Amino acid sequence: MLKPAVGRILISEPFLSDMYFQRSVVLMVDHSSDGSFGIILNKPVESFVCDIVDGFHGIKSKIFLGGPVRSDALFFIHRLGRKIRGSVIIHNDIAWGGDVGQVKEMIKKGEIKEKDIRFFLGYSGWTKNQLDDELKHNSWVVSDKKIDTVIDVEPENMWEYSLKQLSGNYKEWINYPKDPTNN
């Protein structure tokens, strides 16, 4: 079984009932002995970044719920690597954060397209040993399969898509009902 690491994803087990994490796919942005930090990739909200944050006119990008922590703060991942100052590469061509002012300017100039960037409100965080405990209780499975393409998948299909990349019995999770009483 894979361990959590920067650039890997967490796929929630099918009966995880938490509002934020039910059938979610979380991209790990940081993982250390002190704790873990990630963003939920497949929970869009009903708004666009240009409707919520000043200076993002010119890009009609959906905004996603990144997690329950700091849901009043904007975060982003992108495929522009080091073109954005302060970015941190987390997996191949996927980078985390960077200079938001530069991002706004690049959007104005048409240098960033919707497919190049994804915006999030909040993040998902785990304290020391918390994620390890959740993994022991089979709340998550860790994957490193097709991370570069997972953000191209439509959010409503991402959980299933991620499970299909795994071997073993995980593919069976796709057929489980959201509510086990509906079995």
Can you describe what's shown?
By secondary structure, this protein is of the alpha+beta class. The chain has five helices and ten strands. Strands 1, 2, 3, 4, 5, 6, 7, 8, 9 and 10 form a ten-stranded mixed sheet that branches. The two termini are 28 Å apart.
Salient structural properties:
5 helices, 32% strand, 183 residues, alpha+beta, 10-stranded mixed sheet
Secondary structure blueprint with pairings:
Blueprint lengths: L8 E4 L12 E8 L2 E6 L3 E5 H4 L9 E4 L3 E10 L9 E4 L2 E3 L3 H9 L8 E11 L2 H7 L3 E4 L3 H4 L4 H10 L19
Parallel strand pairs: 5-9
Antiparallel strand pairs: 1-2, 1-10, 2-3, 3-9, 4-5, 6-8, 6-9, 7-8
What is the chains' assembly state?
single chain
Give the fraction of residues assigned to helices: 10-25%
- How far from one another are the termini? 28 Å
Estimated structural class: alpha+beta
- How many helical elements? 5
Strand runs, count: 10
Sheet having the most strands: 10 strands, mixed
The residue-averaged pLDDT reads 91
* Rg, nearest Å: 16 Å
Q: How much beta, percentage-wise?
A: 25-35%
Tell the overall outline.
globular
Low-confidence stretches: none
The run of helices and strands is: EEEEHEEEEHEHEHH
Summary, kept brief:
With 183 residues, the protein is α+β, with helices and mostly antiparallel strands.
